[in-house]
């Protein structure tokens, strides 16, 4: 069968042969035993409903073995034989160019060079899934290959519910992930529902088909590190940044450190993912001996090298040993997947990687106890460094939250706040999000590197022209992004699809997108797929990260994210998504995203202007209402440019009245 025929086949009528387990692939850890015997029967019934009854006898024992062995039913047998990667849009079958673009993005999320656990359909974060099993993948791709521009595909946590009649201006796909009743948003609720095959953790851009590999977070981390050094009034050159995690997202940290120009030490316990990141060029060196690491870091600081060093071991060893050696850390953070602390997101000290995985699956209570003990040591070591001048920030991965739950000395004197700020609270919120700057991204659907180079130039030209007349308040953001886009090709940031990201406000996003659309109309480039990280101005309500700099008491509300995705859906998005969980944990955040296909048409031009304006200014208006100074400035400026925009501005109360 050709590639197109395999896509159109969906779930095959004749079962493919079982697939052997491939130990060379980075696999998800075994999930803990959580289902009762009756619930295991229900999980098997739920899995078998994808198949004709004649196949049930063959599959039931196989699926039971998967459930017993891995804690989930992945349906490995149905994994396709073709290479998993984003192909040029012309290679996909179908009746809708928009649907073909979505197929391209789904396959990019599952590309072996992009995905953290590709055989388990997990893109990043340890549990950020595109689908729950391979039957869902096959059925979704079949539906997309059949749909027209007058249908909408409805996705329930990885399950394609079906194609429904709609119209050309409606989204082609509407995605929800993990949208459970609030009282069922504890980690074990996810474990149970995911094991049953009825819900999944879509992270942010995994389950919404908009992940572009580590590049997305490289940019955000670069901006954060640069602004972190500005905050402590120190040059990155000859300075030390210490962090941990080399998974799908956090693998970007060492690359960002190189771009910023500092010495970066990033600890990771998983040898396989460390090797992958080294081969991909995201880290320069791997060191396995802590004594050798100390000597190497001293030399790098002395020579003012821009170098990234992976320490294959536990991050607590690094913080503790650097304290003993009086090795000063300038910037410190952590980006292990602590939204997922009991299922592979964070590993305890004193155990090998293999021992930890065994304990996680077979003795989860002991594993939790050891993780919490490690978190207490981790926090204690950080406290020693910050007492000597280290600037530590939480990278929104729930490190401070889980450390506090473990009883670590991490709370401020008021007993309510944490000792250390979130990077959004201290850096990205007031410097970027309040002004409307966030992670705008695009993918060249042709798959041609030359198209990406052309879009880079178009974006750079637009930003340079805009900067000539931009207000002083946003000059630094503009300059940082012009520098970023100019160095994007040189830094070899593409992993998977021909994609790019930069931080832009609503004006910048609209002007760049319009310039792309005109270039497509002229035949200079192929179709372009627009998107963004959910980690943005308006897409995410997350009290410990994206909305951590909201101080009017509304941090734990999620009106903004819900309005964001509803508003995008009727203003022209090609697909929209809304998720529970993502980055900071199940039950801790609601986040929404979109994708938009530009085809050079006048209709695309209208859609991009309407949707992108709303997508940003919805968030700025909420931040303005919270009395954030930068957001008040930004929304007033937006109202001057768009007479149809009327936003309620807060009145500021004189503190002396109290």
UniProtKB/TrEMBL annotation:
Residues 213-427 form the Urocanase Rossmann-like domain. Its cofactor is NAD(+). Pathway: Amino-acid degradation; L-histidine degradation into L-glutamate; N-formimidoyl-L-glutamate from L-histidine: step 2/3. Its main location: cytoplasm. Residues 433-636 form the Urocanase C-terminal domain. Signal peptide: none annotated. Keywords: Cytoplasm, Histidine metabolism, Lyase, NAD. GO terms for molecular function: urocanate hydratase activity. Pfam families: Urocanase, Urocanase_C, Urocanase_N. Binds 1 NAD(+) per subunit. The keyword NAD applies. NAD(+) binds at residues 125-126, 203, 268, 395, 583. Its EC number is 4.2.1.49. It is found in: Cytoplasm. It is an enzyme of class 4 (lyase). It catalyses: 4-imidazolone-5-propanoate = trans-urocanate + H2O. Residues 1-22 are annotated as: Disordered. Residues 84-210 form the Urocanase N-terminal domain. The keyword Cytoplasm applies. InterPro entries: Urocanase, Urocanase-like, Urocanase_C, Urocanase_central_sf, Urocanase_CS, Urocanase_N, Urocanase_Rossmann-like, Urocanase_sf. Catalyzes the conversion of urocanate to 4-imidazolone-5-propionate. Belongs to the urocanase family. This is Urocanate hydratase. It comes from Flavobacterium sediminilitoris.
């Amino acid at each position: 069968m050709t590639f197109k025929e395999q896509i159109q086949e969906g779930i095959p009528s004749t079962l493919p042969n079982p697939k052997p387990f491939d130990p060379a692939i980075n696999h998800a850890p075994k999930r803990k035993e959580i289902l009762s015997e009756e619930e295991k029967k229900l999980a098997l019934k739920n899995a078998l409903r994808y198949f004709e009854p004649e196949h049930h006898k063959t599959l039931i024992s196989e699926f039971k073995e998967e459930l017993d062995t891995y804690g989930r039913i992945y349906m490995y047998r149905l994994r396709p034989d073709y290479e998993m990667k984003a192909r040029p849009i012309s290679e996909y079958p179908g009746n809708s160019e928009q649907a073909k673009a979505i197929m391209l993005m789904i396959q990019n999320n599952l590309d072996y060079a992009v995905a953290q656990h590709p055989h388990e359909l997990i893109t990043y974060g340890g549990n950020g899934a595109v689908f729950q099993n391979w039957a869902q993948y096959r059925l979704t791709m079949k539906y997309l290959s059949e749909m027209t521009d007058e249908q909408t595909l409805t996705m329930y946590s990885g399950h394609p519910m079906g194609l429904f009649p709609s119209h050309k201006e409606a989204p082609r796909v509407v995605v929800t992930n993990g949208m459970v009743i609030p009282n069922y948003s504890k980690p074990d609720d996810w474990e149970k529902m995911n094991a049953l095959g009825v819900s999944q953790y879509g992270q942010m851009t995994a389950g919404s088909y908009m992940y572009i590999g580590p590049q997305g977070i490289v940019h955000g981390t670069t901006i954060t590190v640069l602004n972190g050094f500005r905050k402590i009034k120190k040059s990155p050159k000859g300075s030390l940044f210490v962090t941990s995690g080399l998974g799908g997202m956090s693998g970007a940290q060492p690359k960002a450190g190189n771009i910023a120009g500092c010495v970066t030490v990033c600890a990771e316990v998983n040898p396989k993912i460390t090797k992958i990141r080294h081969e991909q060029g995201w880290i320069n060196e791997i060191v396995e001996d802590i004594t050798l690491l100390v000597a190497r870091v001293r030399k790098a600081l002395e020579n003012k090298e821009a170098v990234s060093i992976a320490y294959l071991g536990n991050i607590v060893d690094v913080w503790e040993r650097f304290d003993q050696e009086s090795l000063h850390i300038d910037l410190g953070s952590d980006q292990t997947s602590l939204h997922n602390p009991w299922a592979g997101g964070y590993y305890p000290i004193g155990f090998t990687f293999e021992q930890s995985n065994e304990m996680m699956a077979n003795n989860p209570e002991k594993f939790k106890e050891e993780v919490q003990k490690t978190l207490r040591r981790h926090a204690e070591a950080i406290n020693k460094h910050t007492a000597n001048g280290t600037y530590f920030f939480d990278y929104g991965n729930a490190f401070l939250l889980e450390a506090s739950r473990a009883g670590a000395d991490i709370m401020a004197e008021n007993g309510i706040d944490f000792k250390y700020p979130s990077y959004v609270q201290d850096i990205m919120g007031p410097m970027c999000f309040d002004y409307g700057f966030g992670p705008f991204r695009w993918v060249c659907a042709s798959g041609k590197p030359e198209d990406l180079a052309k879009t880079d130039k178009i974006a750079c030209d637009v930003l340079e022209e805009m900067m000539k007349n931009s207000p002083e308040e946003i000059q630094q953001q503009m300059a940082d992004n012009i520098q970023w886009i100019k160095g994007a090709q040189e830094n070899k940031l593409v992993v998977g699809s021909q994609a790019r990201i930069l931080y832009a406000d609503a004006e910048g996003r609209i002007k760049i997108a319009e310039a792309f659309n005109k270039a497509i109309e002229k035949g200079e480039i192929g179709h372009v797929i627009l998107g963004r990280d959910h980690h943005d101005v308006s897409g995410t309500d997350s009290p410990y990260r994206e909305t951590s700099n909201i101080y009017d008491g509304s941090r734990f509300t999620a009106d903004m994210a819900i309005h964001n995705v509803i508003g995008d859906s009727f203003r022209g998005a090609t697909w929209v998504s809304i998720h529970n969980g993502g980055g900071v944990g199940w039950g801790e955040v609601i986040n929404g995203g979109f994708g938009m296909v530009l085809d050079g048409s006048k209709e695309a031009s209208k859609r991009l202007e309407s949707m992108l304006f709303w997508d940003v200014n919805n968030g700025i208006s909420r931040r303005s209402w919270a009395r954030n100074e930068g957001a008040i400035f930004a929304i007033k400026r937006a109202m001057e440019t768009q007479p149809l925009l009327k936003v309620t501005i807060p009145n500021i109360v004189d503190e002396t009245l109290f």
